Amino acid sequence: MFKVGFLGCGGIANAHARVLTDLGDRVRLVAFCDKVEEKARRFNREYADGKGKVYTDFHRMLEKEKLDILYICLPPFAHTDEVEAAAERGVHIFIEKPIALEVEAARRMTEAVERAGVKSQVGFQLRFGEAVRVVKGMLDSGEAGRPGLVEARYFCNSLHSPWWRDKSKSGGQVVEQVIHTFDIIRHFLGEPEAVFSFMDNLFHRDLSDYTVEDVSATVVKFKNGALATVAATNGAIPGKWISDYKLVAEKVTVYFEDANHAVIHHTDSPYERVTSVSSERPLQKAAAEDLLKAIEDDRETLVPIREGAKSLELVLAVARSGETEEVVRL
Fold first, then answer.
1. Sign of CA dihedral 160, 166, 171, 173
2. How many helices (H) and strands (E) in the chain?
3. Which of 81, 205, 282, 307 is most open to solvent, judged by the fewest CB atoms within 10 Å of its CB?
4. Inter-residue contact 97 to 16 (CB < 8 Å)
């Protein structure tokens, strides 16, 4: 049985805690830490029947509790040395994205994890979608041929949390939210070479505390020659999150409704051939199970912290291009 502690007991942590409690005897939630003590106490009551321990200081939690896994569910501005401290104690790590707001901090985290030899998983759950898994396999095996283009969009309309709409704390919509889309594009196309982006705040200028962009359009060039375009906005349909993408490769064109659903058009055939992928695979549960299995089998997870650092570097380059209106090379 894996003993799990939580650092950060907010909204996204609830989703992960529910997933872990559904895994039965494989895990036990034993410790909860939040700077607001009542949040940690509520988690203890809800997910450990009040039998866990509550902390407001994560260093003290690491000292007192013998954890197997630490779930780090902090907003990006709140990261300090928790990854390094956990890794030094041999604690495996799940960390929500983005893992930091600076490339240097992300690199320190990665080095600490890899030096300690602990397992890590970043919360890019879209990689676990069944349609993503199938198409990634086709790309890796050569069945899809050479990848050439991804067209993606991320549309929503919400004020989100006060920290989210403060660019100094979230990094902006691209950095905090659309990073999911950029990570999937990296997953398909490989490592980026250069980016160019325009972005602005067009819909929320009357809100003094809203300093992030709410429209952006980005082009990414990859080292293998492939290209991607990403359009994002926080001014679309209220209450709806639309995240879809299209992939064009040498032998297939794929329309993703989401990570679990896609229509694959096989373009190398003399006759029309279409494959549909449809699944209700629970993505966060799949990510949790992959981390547990990686620990048991002593293998790498699907999204180790090194991948979190690389996708962070990409979106920070996009944000920098949006600010300077210049091409940024990685």
1. positive
2. 11, 15
3. 205
4. no
**Structural tokens at position 308:** 């979190």
Average pLDDT per 10 consecutive residues for the chain, totaling 330 residues: 97 96 94 97 97 97 97 97 98 98 98 98 98 98 98 97 97 98 98 98 97 98 98 97 97 98 95 95 97 98 98 98 98
Rounded distance between C-alpha atoms, residue 176 and residue 186, angstroms: 16
Output the pLDDT for position 4: 98
CA distances from residue 104 to 177, 290, 316 in whole angstroms, order as listed = 20, 27, 12
DSSP 202: -
Domains of the chain and CATH, by start: 2-125 (3.40.50.720), 127-281+303-329 (3.30.360.10)
Residue 102 CA to chain centroid, in angstroms?
A: 16
285 near 291, Cβ under 8 Å?
no
